[in-house]
Amino acid sequence: MILHIQQVIDAGTLSVIRDKLQQQVFANGLETAGWAAEKVKQNQQLRAPHPIIELLQQRLMAHPLVKAAAQPAQWVNVMVNRYDTGQHYGTHMDDALMGGVRTDLSFTLGLSAADSYQGGALVIEDSSGERSWRLEQGDVLLYPTQFLHRVEAVTEGTRFALVGWIESMLREPQQREMCFDLHQAMQAEFQQHGKTAQYDLLSKTYQNLLRRWAKR
Ligand SMILES: O=C(O)CCC(=O)C(=O)O
Ligand SMILES: [Fe+2]
């Protein structure tokens, strides 16, 4: 399950954040690249602790869809990536363990308006082929960390994005998808019909599956 959630952060907040980001000193992205990824990583990054990262991470952590889809146990290496014109991040795998935290999900939160730069698509490969995203500012893409992926070269302008990884209480993508679907069905039933007997059954199954599978 790859989830595209729209408008997690409003455009006004993002405009203030971008102004602040322009004043920060970014480090070379190679600082956090593994030995293979360093062959293909050409970007810049701003790492935690930093108040901008703190603020954005708090918003993501509080978002109901992020919570329901990721069932987070821990967040790790949340940082701002910056790609100026000509920069890219070629095909790579993210490390399975970052400081002892297992990376079950990756996310990218778009911080730049999609029409303010050219190129810079995030491309994810699976056995059926490739899919690419140029996220609108404020949108987040949440995806299992199991795929080869890349960021295409930015050919004009600058692409800022918040990226990071999540260790989930539900290790398997299939478990997360089942719990997420059930959660969404439960919510829809409650919103449309109230606390019906069907809602209670969905809720019972959701909570019991979570209890059965969740590990921290
Ligand atoms: O900038 C992005 O959207 C993703 C970057 C990425 O793949 C990474 O930092 O490992
Ligand atoms: Fe990556």
Automatic annotation (TrEMBL):
UniProt KW keywords: Dioxygenase, Iron, Metal-binding, Oxidoreductase, Vitamin C
SMART domains: P4Hc
A family per Pfam: PKHD_C
InterPro entries linked: Oxoglu/Fe-dep_dioxygenase_dom, PKHD_C, PKHD_hydroxylase, Pro_4_hyd_alph, Pro_4_hyd_alph_FE2OG_OXY
Cofactor annotation: L-ascorbate; Fe(2+)
UniProt-annotated binding residues for Fe cation: H92, D94, H149
Domain Fe2OG dioxygenase: 72-168
GO biological process: DNA damage response; intracellular iron ion homeostasis
Signal peptide start and end residues: none
Gene Ontology molecular-function annotations: 2-oxoglutarate-dependent dioxygenase activity; iron ion binding; L-ascorbic acid binding
UniProt-listed Gene3D superfamilies: q2cbj1_9rhob like domain, Rabenosyn, Rab binding domain
Cofactor note: Binds 1 Fe(2+) ion per subunit.
Origin: domain of life: Bacteria
Residues noted as binding 2-oxoglutarate in the record, renumbered to the chain: R159
Annotated HAMAP family: Hydroxyl_YbiX
Name of the molecule in the record: Fe2+-dependent dioxygenase
Originating species: Pseudidiomarina sediminum
